[in-house]
Design brief:
- By secondary structure, the protein is of the alpha+beta class.
- Strands 2-3-1-4 form a four-stranded antiparallel sheet, sandwiched between helices.
Length: about 190
């Protein structure tokens, strides 16, 4: 049996779900972003308790098929950007269709209907968030970041970053140094 969970976006979320399942005596085989595969049927009472426990952590059980598919789209994109260094050999639309076994036009229309944004915007927003993370926490150059995130060039990354944040990557990185410098003087 699969249990679908909204807002699972990181490894910590998976840990929370595993912990709550254990507390309720629900045996799982796999916990992935957006879903948990459990060994046995789960009672309505257990699901109610799980729902309450997960809400405390900002997670939510889902049973609506459209919402579940949208969360799967989000999970595939988040996994691709944040947790793998794999470069997809095909375009994003084909990749999503292949992974989720649905026509991309259907996926794109559904995503836009439910989220009010396009898959492409969601994808680009997460790429830029990953760039920000790498600028702040890693000592990678912009060239290395562009290569790591499969941008065609540093100029392309810089233009996209500026368009989405209003800042150049260099200016964004310098803001980090100013913030830390200020804190060190306190």
């Amino acid at each position: 049996m699969k249990i679908y969970i909204r807002n699972m976006v990181c490894i910590r979320c998976k840990m929370v779900v595993k912990s709550e399942l254990k507390k309720l005596g629900i045996h799982y085989t796999v916990v992935e972003l957006g879903e948990a595969e459990v060994k046995d049927n789960v009672s309505t009472e257990q699901l109610d308790h799980l729902s309450v426990a997960l809400k405390k952590s900002g997670l939510e059980l889902m049973d609506d098929k459209k919402s579940i598919l949208v969360e799967k789209i989000k999970a595939v994109i988040i996994e691709l950007i944040h947790y793998t260094d794999e470069q997809i050999k095909i375009n994003l639309s084909d990749y999503l269709s292949e992974k989720l076994h649905f026509n991309y036009t259907y996926l794109a229309n559904l995503f836009s209907e439910v989220k009010g944004a396009t898959i492409e915007n969601f994808y680009l927003a997460h790429k830029i968030e990953k760039v920000k993370e790498l600028l702040v926490y890693d000592d990678l150059t912009l060239t290395e970041i562009a290569y790591k995130l499969h941008y065609s060039s540093v100029a392309h990354l810089s233009n996209q970053f500026k368009k989405m944040t209003g800042l150049t990557p260099s200016h964004f990185k310098n803001l980090k140094h100013k913030r830390f410098g200020t804190l060190e003087n306190v």
